[in-house]
Amino acid sequence: MLQSPNFAALSALYKREQNLSPMQKDQPVCISLTAAQSHKITIPAGQGSFSIGTKGISKGKYDTWVEKGEVIQWNCFDEFSTPAGSRWPRFLYYAGNDNGFVGWSDQRPVEDFHWFPYESVSADLTKADIGNFHVHSSGEQVELTLGSKIRRLYLSGNLAKFQIKQSARIPYLHFSPDTAKKEIISYKLPVFRNFEQVPHIDVNVPPVGQAFDCESLLQFANLKSLSLSGNLTNLHALKELKHLKSIELRYVPDLAAMPALTTWPQLTYFIGWNIEEEAGKVLKKELQQLSKEKVFTYASVSKLKKKIWFTTEYGIPFAGWADKNAKPATKAYKTALKEICKAKTEDEVKVSIGKVIRVINTLQDIETTEREDAGLAVDQLIQSSSLAISTEKASQWFDEYRDF
Questions:
Q1: What PROSITE patterns does its record include (predicted)?
Q2: Phi and psi angles of residue 13, each rounded to the nearest 5 degrees, phi first
Q3: What is the pTM of this model?
């Protein structure tokens, strides 16, 4: 009779062989991050990640901080493990410009690395062993030479600033571009010539605001799998991607131009989740019919939403305001939204707009940024109306009512 393996014993053996020490959670530990015993850290129990910020530059909360230009001794993590015996940290977040982690990962594989350089940078990752590599550009030039051990590449921020010198046939590519809050001209991906053969692409933009132009995906003619999330336009262009086997749509407020699912003869996987109701019902019927004709690995259309839901859940532009101002402004916005959706005349819309602005007039500390957010709120409100009201007229109403 076969005995079950003793996993506790195997874990202990693994740690002895690797000479790894379990990271002491909730207790101060000194690590040689930039010099011998340079940083004292305390990691909460259960935390498998570690984050490093650069003083005076990085924003947000980090586990520890380094000075600008300091070189990181990445191998200081080599001695640590999780209680289960795997390497610690599993996930690293680094806001800085030292690219020494690249060479380090060749010797010590990294499961997940998030990089936020603050100056233009270049990295040769041909030998890097990083499972999921996330890179963000907030305007800095980022030049990457990629290797075959990077399984998933995530590019975010200003995508026009990325230069890919070599792709090594990355199997999975994720784009999260910076987009504008207003529904101005649609956002198009830059041309990435070294990604032409990528089989799977994931694009994520907010559900409200500048729409992602699906036509810019046609540069990836070899796509087999596509996942899209957020506000989309030119969906009709997807019919040119002849080899799609998998399509996923999430948080899409307008699917009017979506091609019929019969467009893709190889399609065997489909998800529609939190998408607009009218088109979602059509897709559900198409899937029911197609399921009679061929076997799907997975097929689901669920959480159908009315178009107004996307605005009320994701479009309200007061999220960054102080609570004392955000709460009354949001309440007034939601009330006006309901009224405007039912409004039959332009005067009714104007009255509702006026109510919102009068509430904001009573709030304290309304500066330039808040004024822009209030203007955006007015733009969104008139777009929810069934009446044709120009943005110029909405701007006139805004200026007429506001005291800020």
A1: LRR
A2: -65, -40
A3: 0.84
